[in-house]
Amino acid sequence: MTYQGLIQRYGHFLDLPAHTKTISLLEGNTPLIPMPRLSAELDCELFIKFEGLNPTGSFKDRGMTSAISEAVGRGAQTVICASTGNTAASAAAYAARAGVRAIVLIPEGKVAAGKLAGAIAYGAEVIQIQGSFDDALALVVEITQKTPIALVNSINPFRIEGQKTAAFEICDELGSAPDWLCLPVGNAGNITSYWAGFKQYQKGLPQLLGVQAAGAAPLVLGQAVEKPETIATAIRIGRPARGEQALAAAQESNGKISAVSDEQILAAQKILAEEGVWVEPASAAGLAGLLAESAVGKFEARGRRVVVVCTGHGMKDPAIIADSFAAPRIIPASYAALLGLIGA
Ligand code: AN7
User: Ligand 1 centroid to 329 CA: how many Å?
Assistant: First the structure.
């Protein structure tokens, strides 16, 4: 059967109202990529769920197909979200597809180039807020309580419904849930969705390792972070809307929420790229957390099946790479110069 997107494939598992009008860009169906080198190093069976291969380059498309389909089905003319970037691009694309207006609020100067460009390309009205993601989220919550504008942040329960499908796909592909699922945590919608998805699908439950950036780790510190800071701008969030649910999921699964430094995140990004998978910094947090747990011996890797969720594509944030590497060398367009440079 031709692939028709997540609502078509898993709609019977999703709690969506009858008025839902499917808006799809054939999201989901992302590969579970085996990582033989990392597996050998950690003595486990490690896979990357590469969510960067969704239509707008991040996992957000799973929840956006469902949230926009519901909103449009009940007649919404305008949708709005606060975003560190990926939600903005995704909301913009699905709103464009549906022919409705999209407004996105982003923290000033802190959104990676590929995300901002995406939101603009898809035709969203992009507004920078002199504040953090958390400030922007408070604003969109207020305006959607007072006007008919539809909220498409992951506070919206239909976002969670759509994002459950990633857990379904992993179970379908492996035949059962993995032993461990490692993923970045920002506003905590995704970890909440995975846990709900695994519980519903009844193919076993993984232990969850949710990973925050050390400079934006309210769930590890046990309190909100007023001025979150991390190079992983996607998860630069100090007051996760679904923080309680994330903590409950980690605990129920006998897993944990941990924090890693920006250096650990960048190191994990490099390790993934060296095995052919380029992800944005936030998306490397899951692996960074796994490596940190393994190093202190808390993670019993041997023989385990581990899925690391890489939430967004490396192309979202080209500056992170471009800023830290020397520009490619320049030579005259001559064979001699080429041979002289590379040796042979
Ligand atoms: C690549 O786009 O919050 O814990 O506004 O872009 O479900 O928030 C993005 C979050 C992980 C964290 N990886 O997911 C937004 C936004 C990437 C992300 C997360 C985000 P949640």
Answer: 35
